[in-house]
Amino acid sequence: MKIIAIILFLATYALLLIFPKKRAHIAVISAAIFVVTGMMPISKVFFTINWNVLMMIAGTMGTVYLFIESKMPALLGDIIIEKTKNVKWAIIALSLFAGLISAFIDNVATVLMVAPVAVTIAKKLDISPISMIIAIAISSNLQGAATLVGDTTSILLGGQAGLDFLDFFVYQGKPGLFWVVQAAAIVSALVLLLVFKKHKQPIHSEGRTTVSDYVPTILLLGTIILLILVSFIPADYKPEIINGLICVVIFLFGLARSYVKKKDTAEITAALKEIDLFTLVLLAGLFLVVGGISEVGVIDDISRVFGRISGDNVFIIYTLIVWFSVVISAIIDNIPYVATMLPVVAGIAGILDVSPTLLYFGLLSGATLGGNLTPIGASANIAALGLLRKEGHDVSSSEFMKISVPFTLAAVATGYVLVWLIWA
């Protein structure tokens, strides 16, 4: 049975790589095979799916749509442009702004919010927007690991390790991932300054966008505040899906308010369409696939292999996990990779009899930051290149990587060193 599980698992990953547009279907079919064959007991199916993670993703996506439609992000972009004196600093400011937004909002949504501002600037100055858009995309990817709601991978880690919102800031009395990511952002921003040192064209603002509705901003801030507040409640006194409930309930409140205000279902329909069912179904299937290989003992075997390769040396295992994650995430989407590796990392920590925190944080740093290395390594990069293509700019991999490689290596190296120094 274990051999069958391994073959099915490897076949699933191969198909995920070959047919990216069918990933959700592949994950569900694979999960169904695990259940039908008994490798994943049907009695455990419901509890193997992490409903808290799925609810957080769905609720956050919906609220973010309302936030974007209110035009608040466009106003914030306009304010930033007012404060910059030339193109170089506009690029740095927009990339840092994209990063800040992306710490709380999906990376793709961030790119779709901020990139149009860069396109507008480029048209006014009659320059190419390529460099600006790439900088915005890779900066948004970087900050995805900063908070619990910054990226799907962060939500997955929170579900696996039982982390609350504040744990990303301070965990067990030590600085959390948020501060590691900010240090990486500062170092990578210095790299961008060098890359764009010749972009000195002056820039001028031409007015501010008018916000149509301030309530979605309040709802988004309310989501974050409530996630912080429930962090103080002991785990024994709150349901496991509390974070997901908060995100979903606030989104539903936003929908109800929209209907009462406009007496029209158009915005409700549009917001529901923005919830990425493809990703939700993919994750549900992957939870069952990973649960299936765990049930038959494959996860434990993989953990032991890592242990043998490293000679049970924690530093070597940590190094392998970080940089292997960078390489893999440069090639494939990091969501299925992280979903698979989290239980493996927990198994490795169990074999070594050490806290899994170091390895968890190393995994997230490598997988999240590593996606910046190539144009296909992250959904935000693909979205950015799609936007550029609509504007008539085809970007080659080499052109993208001239910016992304130094940026990514600087960010990952910073995270690699800091996570080890803080958590080893």
Folded structure, characterized:
By secondary structure, this protein is an all-alpha fold. The chain has one domain. It is 72% helix and 1% strand. It has 20 helices and two strands. The chain has helices at residues 2-18, 23-36, 45-48, 51-69, 72-82, 87-102, 107-125, 130-142, 152-161, 177-195, 215-230, 242-262, 266-273, 277-295, 298-310, 314-329, 334-352, 357-370, 379-390, 397-423; strands at residues 170-171, 174-175. Strands 1-2 form a two-stranded antiparallel sheet. β1 (170-171) and β2 form a beta hairpin. α7 packs parallel to α19 and α17 packs antiparallel against α18. The longest helix has 27 residues, at 397-423.
Label this structure with key terms.
mainly alpha; 2 strands; 424 residues
